[in-house]
């Protein structure tokens, strides 16, 4: 038992130490090598409020069957803030307070400064920022915080001024529109991210979401008197998804006004106008104060009454608020009344003005001197601390007390609750979460650990989890930070939003510690810190600031230096931006930034170094736009990858510019190629065919290319070719004009000649022949086959007789055979000089005898063999060839 208890001590101690706030942690480092005796005395030295000594429950109030408590969160640190003479807007979730003198209320005192100031405080009354209020536009009608902690101030003429938490005006100023300007805003109501206002002409306007702040007019409620009260049901809780405005008007009804209509509700239920209304957090219930001094709680569509209770005053309360979902608070001058579903109301007396700040699980009560939190006592806490409680949790808590006093009663208690130990432990853990008092948190957690040591089946990390949450909560609740979140609010808000709020309030160190502690991404925090640092450090030289920034930025792997650099650039610190972006390892982020800060050359270098063609193009296009062409050409000339990419791109899309580039670098031949290519492109244009005059430009292009090729010795061939091409195009063009047939352009020289002959235009063919110095042989070949194509056998024969053909007669034979004109072929076969050719030609037209004769003249046995095979079907021919071959071999043998 002894060792087990000691073991359990060390656990308890760890719990206690871990409860210290995050900020204190380093100074309270626990050394695990300490001996157990020390551990024990350390524990007994802790000042723990003894249960027997402090009756926790004595501070509770009973409302119907539920307990409520109202612990003080902070004594307010502010001085001389008279809530009666100020307008106050408090943000939920332990958010900040905005305070401004209410000019509609006061008679100015001499002592008071004539300057009207808007002051922002934390919930503990610590001044966050202030600014002089000098807006025109009349009375300040309404003021409220949005979900992202922007302060919204609506003035009479319908202008909406927005402030951040550092009291900086966020521009542009918004306007609720012309009608509001003309008729004045009389009142407004807010919700998380929107507002509704009513003008003195009784028209309603709404900004549904400040993220997209446009004012919309709602349906005309058709009233001619100011409503007694106004409340809104947030869009997220309405059927239509649009805001619903409830107006308590003189007839015994409530009007529900929406964008597209007005409804009257509560006609059966109300007997007079409502004086004050407030909708519950979930939009389901409406608490209202009736004309005859009653608190009425109904469904928000006024169909069912939940509570109707007489109040002591017939005057409507100054403030009406829901406290959680179970009770409603009514505040008159010095009295705060809490009403539940049944039983006597609870009275609280205040001798100073207070402000009720509804939270999801209670109401914060702000006064000149303190901030309190009124909430229903959680069940676990009730089970432990109710006077005379014999719940397992209460007994466990008691057992710890006995144990601390070394009383044997500790064991006795434990034995009593053995079977329900897990639930006792759970209750202690849960109650811990709901405590604001750190020493009581400690005691409760010690009780939980004490119990856990004796119960094997309790989830072990439950206590650690709770410690973690409480360390965060205690840290942000500390008066310096002043965010008094309850555990329920914290869970609803989520840690990441909390961290967002901390960094927004420039509590970067704490935000960093918390995100580190909770294992969340620290990048958000460090990034925000770095940006704020840059904004705030106008006087620190670049190099020094860079050091400071790098020191922190390196804490977070993968952080975007480029983003920080971008911010530096936006703040006019281009040099710092350039220094920062050097540290960005990802070219994809680095390069665009370099461009945006005007470091094009470095950007191009980085982009080409990393070889990402997309990035290179990005830089190219950027520089291209910004620089003079010659400067641009010089830039890319020295970077082969960039140059090649540019050329590739230019070939497809930017010929003119690419030509300029080639000219600038003296690559005339490349310009020439481009021109040549362009001429082809022109040719592909359907307009260019049909002898259209587009051929003119084409020819010019080719000629230009030719002259450019001629500039360099190395391109004589190209120059010549271009020259010929131009000449050919010109002739073809003329031919098309004269023949009125679009069949010449872009055909080859040979085809041109052939086409001329086929068309019977021998003069033109001759002219082309002469122009292009077509050789005789080629000319013969072309003409022979062209004539055969048109079966002009007469012309062919005439042609064969002009002179001895330089290509011999074989092409004539071929052409006739191909045209399947044996009769024509026979005319030329005898003229073939070579008997072998003759033999073969005869064979091809099936004249075996003549073939055989020719073959035997040639004295070619092998040829005879082949011919025999050709005439294999023909037995007579076969025999003939055999005989001849035999004769031949005989002659050869002799
Ligand atoms: C606990 O208190 C006793 C007496 O007040 C003191 O002698 C002892 O050093 C304290 N132990 C620790 C760990 O502070
Ligand atoms: C409460 O504790 C104080 C000392 O801390 C002691 O003097 C007093 O007797 C205790 N009261 C009760 C009721 O135990
Ligand atoms: C605010 O509270 C302080 C301290 O209780 C008091 O002295 C002061 O008179 C109060 N101020 C106002 C304006 O009520
Ligand atoms: C917003 O209002 C303030 C004065 O109230 C004025 O100085 C400022 O120029 C306005 N901003 C814009 C963008 O109109």
What is the topology?
Blueprint: H1 2-19, H2 36-45, E1 61-63, E2 66-69, E3 72-75, E4 86-90, E5 97-101, E6 117-121, E7 127-132, E8 140-145, E9 151-155, E10 159-163, E11 169-175, H3 178-183, E12 185-191, E13 194-199, E14 204-207, E15 215-217, E16 229-233, E17 244-248, E18 254-258, E19 261-265, E20 274-279, E21 285-290, E22 294-299, E23 305-310, E24 319-323, E25 327-332, E26 335-339, E27 346-349, E28 354-359, E29 362-367, E30 370-376, H4 379-385, H5 392-404, H6 409-417, H7 421-433, H8 438-452, H9 461-477, H10 487-493, H11 495-504, H12 508-517, H13 523-536, H14 542-553, H15 561-570, H16 574-581, H17 587-596, H18 600-610, H19 613-626, H20 629-637, H21 640-653, H22 655-665, H23 668-684, H24 695-709, H25 716-739, H26 749-758, H27 762-771, H28 776-789, H29 793-802, H30 810-818, H31 822-828, H32 835-844, H33 848-858, H34 861-870, H35 875-893
Antiparallel strand pairs: 1-2, 2-30, 3-30, 4-5, 5-6, 6-7, 8-9, 9-10, 10-11, 12-13, 13-14, 14-15, 16-17, 17-18, 18-19, 20-21, 21-22, 22-23, 24-25, 25-26, 26-27, 28-29, 29-30
Describe the structure.
It comes from Clitoria ternatea (Butterfly pea). Helix 4 (about 380-385) packs across helix 5. The strands form seven sheets. Strands 1, 2, 3, 28, 29 and 30 form a six-stranded antiparallel beta sheet that branches. The protein has a four-stranded antiparallel beta sheet with strand order 4-5-6-7, with no helix packed on it. With about 900 residues, the chain is of the alpha+beta class. The longest helix is centred in the C-terminal third of the chain and has 24 residues, at about 715-740. The protein starts with a helix and ends with a helix. A hairpin with a 2-residue loop joins strand 18 (about 255-260) and strand 19. Residues about 1-55 have low confidence and may be disordered. Among the domains are: about 85-105 and about 115-215, Methylamine Dehydrogenase, Chain H; about 585-665, no CATH class; about 835-894, no CATH class. The protein binds 2-acetamido-2-deoxy-beta-D-glucopyranose (4 copies). The site of one 2-acetamido-2-deoxy-beta-D-glucopyranose (NAG) has 4 residues, from strand 11.
């Amino acid at each position: 038992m002894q060792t087990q208890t000691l073991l359990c001590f060390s656990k308890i101690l760890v719990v206690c130490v871990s409860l210290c706030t995050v900020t204190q942690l380093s100074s309270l480092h626990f050394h695990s090598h300490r001996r157990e005796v020390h551990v024990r005395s350390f524990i007994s030295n802790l000042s723990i409020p003894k249960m027997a000594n402090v009756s926790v429950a004595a501070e509770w109030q009973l409302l119907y069957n539920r307990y409520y408590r109202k612990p003080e969160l902070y004594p307010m640190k502010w001085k001389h803030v008279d809530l009666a003479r100020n307008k106050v807007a408090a943000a939920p979730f332990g958010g900040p307070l905005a305070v401004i003198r209410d000019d509609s209320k006061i008679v100015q005192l001499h002592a008071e400064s004539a300057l009207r100031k808007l002051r922002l405080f934390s919930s503990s009354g610590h001044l966050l920022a202030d600014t002089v209020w000098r807006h025109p536009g009349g009375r300040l009608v309404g003021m409220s915080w949005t979900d992202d902690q922007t302060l919204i101030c609506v003035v009479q003429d319908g202008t909406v001024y927005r402030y951040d938490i550092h009291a900086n005006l966020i521009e542009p100023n918004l306007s609720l529109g012309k009608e509001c300007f003309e008729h004045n805003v009389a009142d407004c109501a807010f919700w998380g991210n929107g507002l509704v206002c009513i003008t003195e002409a009784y028209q309603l306007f709404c900004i549904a979401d400040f993220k997209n702040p446009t004012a919309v007019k709602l349906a005309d409620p058709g009233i001619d008197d100011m409503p007694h009260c106004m409340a809104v049901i947030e869009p997220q809780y309405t059927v239509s998804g649009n805001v619903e405005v409830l107006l308590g008007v003189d007839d015994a009804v409530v009007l529900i006004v929406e964008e597209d209509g007005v409804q009257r509700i509560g006609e059966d239920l109300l007997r007079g106008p409502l004086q004050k209304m407030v909708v519950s957090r979930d939009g389901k219930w409406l608490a209202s104060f009736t004309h005859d001094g009653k608190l009425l709680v109904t469904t928000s569509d006024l169909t069912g009454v939940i509570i109707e209770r007489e109040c002591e005053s017939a005057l409507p309360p100054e403030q009406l608020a829901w406290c959680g979902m179970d009770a409603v608070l009514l505040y008159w001058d010095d009295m705060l009344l809490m009403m539940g579903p049944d039983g006597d109301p609870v009275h609280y007396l205040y001798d100073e003005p207070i402000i009720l700040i509804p939270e999801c699980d209670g109401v914060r009560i702000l006064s000149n001197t303190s901030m309190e939190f009124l909430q229903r006592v959680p069940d676990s806490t009730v089970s432990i601390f109710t006077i005379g409680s014999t719940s397992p949790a209460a007994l466990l808590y008691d057992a710890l007390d006995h144990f601390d006093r070394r009383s044997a009663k500790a064991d006795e208690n434990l034995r009593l609750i053995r079977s329900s130990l897990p639930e006792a432990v759970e209750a202690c853990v849960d109650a811990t979460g709901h405590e604001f008092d750190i020493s009581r948190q400690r005691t409760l957690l010690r009780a939980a650990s004490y119990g856990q040591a004796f119960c094997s089946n309790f989830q072990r990390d439950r206590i650690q989890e709770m410690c973690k949450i409480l360390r965060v909560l205690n840290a942000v609740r500390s008066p310096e930070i002043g965010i008094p979140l309850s555990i329920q609010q914290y869970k609803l808000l989520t840690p990441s939003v909390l961290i967002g709020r901390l960094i927004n309030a420039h509590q970067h160190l704490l935000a960093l510690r918390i995100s580190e502690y909770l294992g969340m991404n620290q990048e958000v925090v460090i990034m925000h810190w770095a940006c704020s640092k840059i904004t705030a450090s106008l006087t620190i030289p670049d190099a020094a600031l860079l050091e400071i920034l790098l020191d922190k930025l390196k804490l977070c792997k993968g952080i975007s230096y480029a983003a920080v650099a971008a911010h530096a650039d936006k703040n006019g610190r281009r040099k710092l931006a350039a220094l920062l972006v050097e540290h960005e390892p990802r070219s994809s982020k680095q390069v665009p930034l370099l461009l945006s800060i005007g470091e094009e050359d470095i950007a191009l270098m980085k982009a080409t170094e990393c070889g990402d063609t997309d990035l290179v193009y990005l830089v190219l296009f950027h520089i291209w736009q910004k620089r003079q062409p010659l400067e641009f050409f010089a830039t890319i000339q020295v970077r082969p990858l960039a140059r090649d990419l540019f050329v590739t791109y230019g070939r497809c899309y930017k010929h003119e510019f690419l030509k300029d580039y080639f000219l600038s670098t003296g690559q005339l031949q490349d310009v020439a190629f481009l021109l040549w290519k362009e001429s082809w492109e022109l040719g592909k244009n359907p307009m260019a065919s049909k002898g259209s005059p587009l051929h003119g430009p084409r020819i010019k292009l080719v000629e230009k290319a030719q002259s450019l090729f001629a500039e360099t010795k190395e391109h004589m061939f190209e120059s010549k070719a271009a020259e010929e091409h131009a000449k050919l195009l010109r002739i073809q063009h003329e031919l098309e004009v004269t023949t009125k047939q679009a069949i010449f352009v872009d055909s080859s020289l040979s085809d041109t000649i052939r086409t001329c002959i086929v068309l019977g235009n021998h003069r033109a063919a001759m002219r082309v022949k002469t122009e292009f110095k077509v050789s005789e042989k080629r000319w013969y070949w072309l003409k022979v086959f062209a004539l055969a194509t048109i079966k002009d056998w007469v012309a062919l024969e005439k042609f064969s007789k002009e002179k001895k053909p330089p290509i011999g007669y074989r092409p004539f034979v071929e052409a006739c055979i191909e045209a399947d004109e044996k009769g024509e072929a026979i005319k030329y076969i005898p003229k073939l000089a070579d008997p072998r050719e003759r033999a073969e030609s005869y064979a091809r037209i099936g004249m075996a005898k003549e073939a055989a004769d020719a073959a035997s003249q040639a004295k070619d046995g092998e040829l005879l063999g082949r011919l025999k095979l050709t005439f294999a079907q023909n037995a007579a021919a076969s025999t003939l060839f055999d005989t001849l071959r035999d004769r031949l071999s005989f002659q050869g043998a002799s």
